[in-house]
Amino acid sequence: MNGMMLFLCMIWGFNFVVMKQGNGVFPPVLFAAYRFLLGAIVLFGLSYFKRIKLPSKRELKWYILCGLLQTTYFNIAIQISLNYINAGLTSVLTYSMPLFLSLMAHYFIPGEKLTATKTVGILIGILGLFLSMDIHFGENIWAPILALSSAVTWALSSLIFKTKLQGCDTVQFTTWQMGAGAVGLFLYSISFEHGQSHWSLMAVVYLLYAGILASAIAFVIWSQILSKVEASKASISLLIVPVVGTLSGFLFLKEGLNAITLIGIFLVLSGVWLVNKAGSPRLMSRIKRNA
Asked: What is the pTM (predicted TM-score) of this model?
């Protein structure tokens, strides 16, 4: 796994700590809406200074669809699930996305067949997540299903990017999908949330980290990686994100870390290694030539 992927996992992993703190001062979906609005504003500014052209009508419809799937629905599903099941289970179900994306890629992306080694690596990684998060199912069975649906929509958005938007400008894509997603989040928050926002210096810091680093910069990096690497390899590497989140919670929020969690982390890393080892030599040589 290259340095860019590791950097992305570190950003998103620590963002679990930032989001937990941010949800204490903002209604959860409103915090997500502010986060992605800020990210979109930064990227629109970057697009202006880099003179990135406006998307075509064909591209724009896919950008909006990806924004509604990857940003609006994804974040709403997570926030609702968190009200009924613990954060560990929600994280595991959300980051089962590599399984769905790998299955979709197997059928819809030429040259990305799901090999036995990749399958084993993905399953080992997801098993490791369940162990590392010390999962306990509750009585509300619909809540885990809702959290799982967030993984499906994230995978579907990534599949659309790989099949319909190859060659598009990654900054342009991230800007417009993030802007469309933020609008959807604001509409949901206005309609269904009733909490109060408590502005302070730290609240601004949470928004700056989540909006600029974990949204604007991180999603551009993710789109760039996804455009150059096999979908299964890129997505399975994201299993490191909740591992970083778990370790960050232990270091900064004094959350528990036991032997089973450490075994789970080892399994996650083993699964990531297996999938990355199983890459197609022909595809990887093509990626290196185009990089």
From this structure: 0.84
